From TrEMBL:
UniProt-listed Pfam families: F-box (PF00646), Sel1 (PF08238)
Source organism, top-level taxon: Eukaryota
Region (Disordered): 1-48
Protein's UniProt name: F-box protein
Compositional bias segments (type: Polar residues): 35-48
TM region positions: none
Domain called F-box: residue spans: 54-89
Matching Gene3D superfamilies: 1.20.1280.50, Tetratricopeptide repeat domain (1.25.40.10)
Length: 338
């Protein structure tokens, strides 16, 4: 059976995630509550933003931490805590902007979807220093077709060491006109070493396609493997291909089958086709039909002829059981981003 050796295609920009809670000190214990909003917050939530101080820890915790401090230590700790409290205050406000931006972007919590309003809130959060808001504003600009503005915001987040911003900037540079693969690989590498699985996959893909100054198959296979181990389905499929043909990894049918099945079980249609064909060649006709049926439903038209040939060899009861297994199949969870 001839296997495809072409790696999966480039992903779109990654989406950021953000915290939606903050600590409360009303009872002296560390706990989290959602941001309070008044009835008029929808018009301008920042006007009535709760100004309570959530920086204090319970006294017994502070005493335990500082019990061995000498006078210089105590003075330093006091200055540091004061500086942190002042520095983080704008970021606390930016989280309110981020929350409202997401509401308008997705049409949640009683507001209608409005990209323009979402962008306004994300830009406010970005101006307050939040890399999460920079990434989200960049995504909105990207959706609007204003790619240069989106890339500028990705770059700001990337320069502040945000892995999603670094990943999105790298992908954007690959899709730019003209593309800049050398700089793209630089930013994808920065995100990859933090464990960002989408960046790891994109870095491997770039190296596999021989983009960038240090491209090689061994390095590409290494990053495919890291992303696959992190749960990234496309990387699982490409890892299986590398093992199958011996590109960057020692050729191994056993390991190729293992990673192909993992990708197939998580909904990768090409992996379902490949794994179904592999099972058929090994005489596992019942399971082969299930995977080929799943691949066919996902749009892999080449799965149908082989599936139909196998079905003719099965009894009616086995055919029904195979379709029952396909109908009751559920994909295993996977990771789309870090």
């Amino acid at each position: 059976m001839k296997r495809a050796t072409r790696p999966c295609c480039t992903d779109g920009p990654a989406r950021s995630t953000s915290p939606t809670a903050r600590p409360s000190e009303s009872d002296g214990r560390a706990r989290f509550t959602s941001f309070p909003f008044t009835k008029n917050k929808q018009q301008n939530p920042l006007q009535n933003h709760n100004e309570e101080d959530f920086s204090q820890l319970p006294y017994d915790v502070l005493l335990r931490i500082s019990a061995t401090f000498n006078l210089p230590n105590i003075r330093s700790a006091s200055l540091v805590c004061k500086s942190w409290c002042q520095a983080i205050k704008p970021l606390r406000e930016s989280m309110v902007c981020l929350k409202w931006g997401k509401r308008y972007k997705h049409g949640r919590s009683g507001v209608k979807r409005n990209l323009s309003k979402a962008l306004d809130y994300f830009l406010q959060g970005a101006a307050l220093g939040s890399t999460l808001a920079m990434v989200d504003a960049g995504l909105v600009y990207w959706e609007m077709g204003r790619r240069e503005k989106g890339m500028n915001l990705y770059r700001k987040a990337a320069e502040l060491c945000d892995p999603v911003g670094q990943c999105n900037l790298g992908i954007s540079l690959l899709q730019a006109n003209p593309p800049d693969p050398e700089e793209a690989v630089k930013w994808l590498y920065k995100a990859s070493v933090t464990g960002h699985v989408r960046a790891q996959y994109q870095l491997a893909l770039s190296l596999h396609k021989r983009q960038g100054p240090n491209s090689n198959l061994q390095e590409a296979a290494k990053w495919y493997m890291k992303a696959a181990e992190g749960g990234y389905v496309r990387a699982m499929y490409n890892t299986a291909l590398c093992y199958s043909v011996g590109e960057g990894l020692m050729q191994s049918h056993k390991l190729a089958k293992k990673w192909m099945k993992r990708a197939a079980d998580r909904g990768h249609s090409k992996a379902q086709l490949e794994h179904g064909m592999c099972l058929f060649s090994e005489g596992e006709t019942m399971q082969a039909v299930v995977y080929l049926e799943l691949a066919s439903r996902a749009g892999e038209v080449t799965a149908n002829p082989v599936k139909n040939v196998i079905l003719q060899e099965l009894s009616a009861s086995r055919q029904d059981h195979a379709m029952f297994l396909a109908n009751s199949w559920l994909a295993l969870p996977s990771s789309s981003s870090h």
